[in-house]
Write a structure and sequence with these properties.
Length: about 130
């Protein structure tokens, strides 16, 4: 566990590799914004993940808001993923670049019809 004294407001709290392991309980990690990572007895689910910034400016989220913290996790650092739940398709909940980056892990996607339609427009396999 990372002690709060060792973390600045700007750096955020990085998600450790252990977050993706088999556990006998449920662990919740904040991804920034509306996003969360859940490890429920070894099943990994992301809720409303936005993990990428603008390509030309790492201080701005992929949907255009100035970041107050660095994202604690990059999509390429995720070793496995069982599911992604999107509460709704607004960009601050369903980041298009993040959504397409997560397809390499072949997770199941969950959400409303509007979420499904947005994912299809992005080319996410269904």
């Amino acid at each position: 566990m990372i002690h709060p004294k060792n973390v600045s407001a700007r750096s955020g709290v990085p998600i450790p590799a252990e977050a993706f392991g088999e556990i006998d309980h449920t662990a919740v990690y904040w991804l920034g914004g509306a996003g969360f990572l859940l490890n429920c007895r070894g099943k990994i689910v992301l809720i409303d993940p936005v993990l990428l910034t603008r390509e030309d400016d790492a201080s701005v989220s992929e949907f255009g808001l100035k970041l107050k913290i660095r994202y604690p996790l990059r999509p390429e650092a995720i070793p496995r993923l069982d599911g992604v739940l999107y509460t709704h398709p607004d960009a601050e909940h369903l980041g298009p670049r993040t959504a397409t980056a997560l397809t390499r892990l072949s997770p199941r996607y969950y959400g409303t019809l509007a979420v499904f339609e947005r994912l299809v427009r992005l080319g996410v396999p269904h």
